[in-house]
Design brief:
CATH architecture of the largest domain: 4-Layer Sandwich
CATH superfamily of the largest domain: Endonuclease/exonuclease/phosphatase
Strand order of the largest sheet: 1-5-2
Shape: flat
Number of strands: 9
Number of helices: 7
Strand content: 5-15%
Largest sheet: 3 strands, antiparallel
Oligomer: single chain
CATH topology of the largest domain: Deoxyribonuclease I, Chain A
Distance between the termini: 80 Å
């Protein structure tokens, strides 16, 4: 018996390892796993991948199944929808006295799973009941979830204000090097915050002239009586203007970043020199 139990444990570990590897290697956005998992128990307070609704208890395979959910970033669909007990159990014992919920639908996107339930009216020759899931595939929600948030904008500092704040700041010196470093960092952060210049959210990467050409192109495209040759000429002018504006905007941003880095280096050097004179 111990050898048989050890062999079964090895086969179970191999199965879950291969399943996890296949799920992780799959590059699809929507992933669904429909299989018999005799081991998914009730969720604890720290497990967010398993819902609160479940029929029965887990067994010795629960650690493997829960580990699969965490490793493959899956959610157990059945446990997130409240159903009657007669609409939950998926397996029946040969004597008809024992029922258990051991068949599951796993997915990696919770928002696309609308409902899960068994189909009691559909009779099969198996001891497992047929179950179904209602899913929603939305291109809009998919794009929204894949959208990368806007990165933090680069902070611009006023050179005169920064030098003035650095010279007026009370730079304290502590004998403990760790505390002295923390005081230096806090002082630099406060000075940088006071010298930062608020930036407008609207970008100036496209000039007013180019915007006028784009508006003219739009009107020509919507006008059914407009000549196609004229529209092609305006379209070519818009492309050239956009390329020039974007190139000009790129050069401007590179120049601003270089100047800002130079200003910050000079300010830090001035601060260190001032602290050195104060210490001496």
């Amino acid at each position: 018996m111990p050898r048989l139990r050890e062999s079964r444990s090895w086969e179970l570990n191999t199965f879950y390892y291969q399943l996890e590897e296949n799920i992780c290697n799959e590059k699809a956005y929507h992933k669904y796993v429909d299989r018999y998992f005799n081991g998914l128990g009730k969720a604890n307070k720290n497990e967010h991948r398993i819902g609160n609704f479940f029929l029965g208890e887990g067994n010795e395979n629960e650690n493997h199944s829960t580990g699969l959910l965490s490793a493959a970033y899956l959610l157990r669909g059945f446990s997130f929808f409240q159903k009657k007990e007669s609409r939950r159990w998926t397996w029946e014992s040969p004597n008809g006295m024992t029922h258990a919920e051991i068949d599951h639908i796993l997915t990696n996107q919770k928002w696309c799973l609308l409902d899960t339930s068994v189909v009691p009216s559909f009779r099969t020759s198996s001891d497992h009941r047929l179950f179904r899931a209602k899913i929603r595939l939305s291109r809009k929600l998919e794009k929204h979830s894949l959208h990368r948030p806007r990165g933090k904008s680069l902070v611009v500092y006023d050179e005169n204000t920064l030098n003035e704040v650095l010279s007026k700041c009370d730079w304290q010196i502590n004998e403990d090097l760790t505390e002295d470093y923390e005081l230096l960092v806090e002082g630099l952060k406060s000075c940088a915050e006071l010298a930062s210049v608020p930036q407008a959210r609207r970008s100036d990467r496209i000039s007013i002239t180019t915007k006028g050409l784009l508006e003219k192109e739009r009107k020509q495209k919507l006008d059914p009586t407009a000549a196609r040759l004229k529209w092609l000429v305006i379209n070519a002018s818009c492309r050239r203007a956009l390329q020039e504006d974007l190139q000009r905007y790129k050069q401007k941003k590179l120049l601003e970043a270089t100047e800002k880095k130079a200003v910050w280096k000079n300010a830090v050097g001035t601060c260190v020199t001032t602290m050195f004179h104060c210490q001496s």
